[in-house]
Amino acid sequence: MQKPVLIIGHKNPDTDSICAAIGYAHLKQALGINALPARAGKLNPETKFVLEYFNIPAPKLVVDLYPRVQDLPLKTGITAHPWFSLRDIGKLFIEHKLKSLPVIDNNNNLLGMITVSDLANRYYEELAIQDLNTAQVDYASVARTLDAEFCAGIESAKLIVAGKVKIGAASTETLVSTIAEQDLVIIGDRLEAQLYSLRAGVSGIILTGGAKPDDIIIQEAQKRNAVVLSTPHDTYSTARLINQSIPVGKIMKTDLVCFHPHDLLEDIKQKMLATGFRSYPIVENDKFISLIDRSKFISPERQEVILVDHNERSQAVEGIEEAHILEIVDHHRLGGLTTGDPLFIRLDTVGSTSTIVANMTWHRDIPMPKEIAGILLAAIISDTMYFKSPTCTPIDIETADKLQALAEINNLQEFAMQVLQSGSVINSLSAQEIVKNDIKEFVFAEYKVAISQINLMDGQQALAKKSELIAALQELQQQKDYDLVLLMATDILDESTNLFFAGNERYLLDNIFGECLGNEYYHLPKVMSRKKQIIPALSEALR
Hints:
The protein is α/β, with parallel strands linked by helices. 36% of the residues lie in helices and 20% in strands.
């Protein structure tokens, strides 16, 4: 099944980023496109309130878009069990044209690997018939390997071959002097030699060339609890084949290089180059999933994505350069994100991406459910601060009016206050959480800048924490090596912002924003928009 197109907003998502992704996914799904809303970070309290209010699940969390093992077309394929004989393995290699096989138990746990090279090496290393007892080979495996039938001792099929394997090609007198108790003797159609072997206490005899035992042989074998097998192969072939009755569990490699579904493809490529094996098993919780053959390794198709509420690389989910960007729907400045293919871009100078999404839905005559209308309305309220932000346009207000009717919100002001108050949670957050709230990165010329914003119903809440906030900003600036970090503590009711800062560009801020109060922050009346009132001025000054 083809992977869905991910519709995703910026890192540290706000309400507009999340709700626009959900709303646009609804539009795409209605148009027959397999689309899925996603998020590039945890939900803030305001967004949680909005989604819970309209009973909509949170979008899928996407940490990055780097291709991983799980993105490959994995198939379970052929597997073996540790009790399979080497001949069983050889047949699987030939029948299915395999180069390697994973060995698993009944619970699909990976135990080891066996390759064609392993079988070839064992063949060339054989100087004599192996002692089967050291490999714990039972008579059932011997019979299966030799295509033999039990003529006596079938109840001993699971009995382990305890002695050495001998070939009864010598005279009877010589044979008797060379065999010992519990040996297994390969012998032709020689009645006397067969009888002497059994009376010498061997654990079994193998009759070659399709020979069948006489009644006296069967009686003698039953009397001594010995096994009698009849194989169609000649003595030479039997002597060669019997070594292949050894279970694969005895020679398989157990020191494996395994990969996991969440491993990055770039990482496993490096490990392949460093180790040089033919195939690598994929496991999860020790369970075998599939094999990756290095000679047939291909990268998966890139994840298709649609970006909403952002178009800058610094704000996009990690690994965006590995994805195939199909569309961008946004209301911010162009931020320099480049693509390899042409794409659809919808940028409008409105206060919220959700305004754009709502109007695109109506333009397509797609019915809008109550809950979708509700979250888009909430996002517009959030991004325009209930129409008080300078970014708000008549189109935002007109769109909100239509969404209010569809969402069946009777008292818009009361609903707006609920939304905004749910996001004003400064007293429940640590200073580190506050400075990372709705943070966005920007690159202006050679300057790397981060600006976060938190909306308040009372600006004094931030001033009471100013020492902690400034310390947290300084810590973040050093950790991320920013040239400048700003925190906008925006008072919605007062329509003003207290701007806290950390960095070495204080003189620029003085030139832009005027007097710095107590060398700690700037008080900016009528400033509420990062996009329209902070970023343009800062960009111009830094350039």
